Fold:
Amino acid sequence: MSPVEIGLISIAAIIFMIYLGVYIPIALGVVSFLAIWIMRDSYELSFALLKIAIGDSAMEYTFATIPLFTFMGLIVSKAGLGADIYSVMNQGCRRITGGIGMATVGANAVFAAVTGSSIASASVFSKMSVPEMLKHDYNPRFAVGVVAGSSVLGMIIPPSAMLIIYSFVAEQSVGEMFLAGVVPGLMLAAAYVLAIWFMGRFTPAFVGGSKIEPESLMPWSEIAAKTIPILLLIVVVLGGIYTGWTTAVEAGAAGSLLGILIAAVRGRINLRSFWETVIETGHITAAILFLITAASMYARMLGLAGLPNELQNLLATVNFDFFWIMVILVVLMLFLGTILDTASIILIVVPLFLPLIDSMGLSLVWFGIVAVVAAEIGLLTPPLGLSCFVIKATLDDDRIKLKDVFLGALPFAFVMLLVLILLIRFPALSLAILS
Amino acid sequence: MKDVIHKIASGVAILANAAGTFVVVGLIAVVSYDIIARGIFNRPFLGAVEVVQFSMVLIVFLQLPDVIRVGRLTRSDGFLGLLRNRRPVAGRWLSRAIDLVSATFMVLVAIAIWPEFLEMWETRDYFGVPGVFTAPWWPVKLVIFLSACLCTVHFALHILFTKGDDVPSQESGS
Structure:
């Protein structure tokens, strides 16, 4: 067997094992270990690469962004910042059909700027926004669909765990990836709001909703108290990175510290819940970094097999142009999105395409945004739409079936695909902010 | 006997997890201190980068055994869940086979890292910038080795104590 064949069989074996339910990092590690052994006919290189992958991956300085931003996201959720921004947005949108939906999207976009995870957004907003929409006679499918769709913003609007993971795989700066994510994230949020407006206008039955009685409105002082903390956090984190005053790691630490202060001032945290938050942070960090460690071994295996170069030659001989390469990439990611989680998709697919994208003279920062958005669509599509599972689990309401969540999320997955096409067609949308 | 091992292994994992948790708090403190010291008093903390690197290793490998203990390692369990419902016996065996493969992998990690530890222990090699801030390599390698051993034990315990109703949750931050 040639190395390329071994490489291809390995990818198939990894996907099969993951489908069976093998832990993803274990599948990546074991198959890569065996593949290198077979290719070299000796286990020495396998052990050497395993040693490097395990020993060195975790030592990467920029990975400190993962625990720091995870912690910041968890602590601001505990501090109730998501609920605050949601109630303010809700008041602003109260007169429009589908207004609570738009408020959910808007609040998610703002909340996304202080959390790095779609899961955090999905669980916070399904507890708040779905009951509120059901109370006002919204269609349950629409209600859960909005929350699922907008939870994806958490991963695109910085800080985002996926952008950090990509920046490691592609050796790009975390700060630049974060800045590149700002415009696409806001664009997606705007596209969602527009889509809700269209649905309210043309398919009111899908949206539902009754007129909201004008309740007592919040005074300006309350609105200020509810928005200023979150805006302050955004300014400190993104402002610090944008002006170059802090690195991404330092911005994460500053944000965490500020998050603790806000939660403490509001009396929303005690020693016990603080401890739980930190333990949660540690668990998430360990799981993500172990995955990255195994994936770095996989990337080395691919390189040894010569697979990325082979793919490049293949696409060159059949004269595939930019358009078709992008079609292949997006279809591949959508397919994998049905069985894998976002981080695994990025770690498995990106190393295959990097040399190709690089040799075509395309920006790797732009490619990162495209890859993350494409992989995120998988969060909304069955059978493994993680955001949808979280919403179903958090709601714990027998009236809403998993099928309803998926069907409700479908229009939003479609909007995402349209935005993805725009992002591919116009790289400046991602890159303009950097220059 | 099995229960005793189970209790000890769980206890060690929880302790390691708590230690790792303190490191997370330390990480926030060190980086924040560096920003304030540098930004306001113009006196940066010189070892910040090395301390951050070192704490990342500690966080990951101190917490990993506990992640495995509570079954939160990243996996896609759609098929496994279906199998458990329809054919509980087959599901249990598949689940055991998966944990066996996982335990084997952690043994490989331990074997790979052990000689590295011995070498660093003897040579007293260090990382960082000499004269500014340095830290020895050997504790890093030792933590990884011990963590891999403990992970192996927990995967082995999963094999012995498969209940079939423990549906692990996905956790990769996505």
